[in-house]
Amino acid sequence: MPDGKAGGAPEMTRRGSAPPGHYTRTAVALHWLMALLITAGFTLGTTMTDLAVSPRKLRWYAYHKWIGITVLGLVVLRVLWRARHAPPPDEPMPHWQRLAAHLTHGLLYLLMIATPVVGWLYSSAAGYPVVYLKLWRLPDLVAKDAALAKVLVQAHGLLAWTLMLLVLLHAAAALKHHFIDRDATLRRILRWRTP
Amino acid sequence: MARPRFAWAAAATLVITLAAAAAGDASIDGTKSSLIATFRQENVPVDAPFRKFSGHILYDLTQPASAKATLAVETASFDLGSEDYNAEVRKKGWFDSASYPQASFVSSAIKPGAPGHFDATGTLTLKGKTLTITVPVTVGRVGAMQSFDGALVISRKYFAIGDPDWNDVVDDKVSVKFHLVE
């Protein structure tokens, strides 16, 4: 059994908050769960379109949509959580890096919302309602419109690729902080157990 | 001058066309009518129209029992909104449009119901298989024309529409909604 687990409590400044310099478990869990889902959704999305018409293709489209809707739900939870649980202050770094990091984070949040929403819009415009987990039919955001669908599918792809490139940039920056700057940037999002 | 002569020719053509339309026996107006199949894939309801169909509905309010209806549908005109899918459903495993270009319904008996309603019994032929069906039909008006509305549910398996490996993904039951104007 790990020691000092019960002893962590006095450090806490507020009920449910992590000690200063740490992310809450909820924040860590949401971060990695969404990283996994975004990567899976992107991989499915870029491969399913090239599949020949088949039962597998239809299934992959369904899974892709379920993943997208899950990401949308989780990002809402994440924004709400973040509003009540401030992330730890930045590690010491040059001003431009701080600016770049915050800009990337802002864009990531924006794209985590915009990509699934535009995908949902596209699905509606194409005449295919989204039925989440095969159980719940979500409302159509727009009426069936082939011309609009064509524009929306382009936009969805562009947003998804931008999101994925920013995820890679974000990951590359974290690795740079870990291996070159040797600071705690990566460690603090990997730390599950509060010390 | 060529211009006035052209105008006269155009006017004459228009008059002849209008006269032909007025005198010609009534048939379903494809531009005002619709025939839409709704199927479910992964529980997602998808509406897709048949773009080409033709037929006649003879219906006289004073003699509803003598009504007759025939409908012929081009199976290759099923439009899922993308050519990949349209090509797929024309294949042997689905409609087999090369061997069975048309699906049809021919009425055999009309049973009048409440005013503006009747039950049409007849033979549905699809992919070489036949089935006797009875469809409740509602009669309405679209301008000076009559409209006939109704819906039925058919089984893909019965007509062998779709290979069995699709059965996990696409539901067996397909509903077909028609709005025929003539």
Number of domains of chain B: 1
Distance between the termini of chain A: 14 Å
What is the CATH topology of chain B?
Lipocalin
Uncertain ranges of chain A: 1-15
Which class of chain A in CATH terms?
Answer: Mainly Alpha
Task: Identify the CATH homologous superfamily of chain B.
Answer: Lipid/polyisoprenoid-binding, YceI-like
Q: What is the end-to-end distance of chain B?
A: 42 Å
Overall average residue pLDDT of chain A: 90
Uncertain regions of chain B: pLDDT < 50 for 5+ in a row? 13-24
Strand pairing plus helix content of chain A: what structural class?
mainly alpha
Secondary structure elements and their pairing?
The complex is a heterodimer of chains A (195) and B (182).
Chain A lengths: L24 H24 L6 H30 L10 H31 L5 E2 L3 E2 L8 H34 L5 H6 L5
Helix pairs in contact in A: 1-2, 1-4, 2-3, 3-4
Chain B lengths: L1 H22 L10 E8 L2 E6 L3 E6 L9 E7 L8 H8 L11 E11 L4 E10 L2 E14 L2 E11 H4 L13 E9 L1
Antiparallel strand pairs in B: 1-2, 1-9, 3-4, 4-5, 5-6, 6-7, 7-8, 8-9
3D architecture notes:
The complex is a heterodimer of chains A (195) and B (182). The radius of gyration of chain A is 20 Å and the shape is elongated. In chain A, 21% of the residues are buried. The longest helix of chain A has 34 residues, at 146-179. Chain A is mainly α and 195 residues long. Chain A has helices spanning 25-48, 55-84, 95-125, 146-179, 185-190; strands spanning 131-132, 136-137. Chain B is of the alpha+beta class. Chain B has one domain: Lipocalin (Beta Barrel). In chain B, 19% of the residues lie in helices and 45% in strands. Chain B has a nine-stranded antiparallel β-sheet with strand order 2-1-9-8-7-6-5-4-3. The relative contact order of chain B is 0.17. Classes of the chains: A mainly alpha (195), B alpha+beta (182). At the A-B interface, α2 of A face β2 and α2 of B.
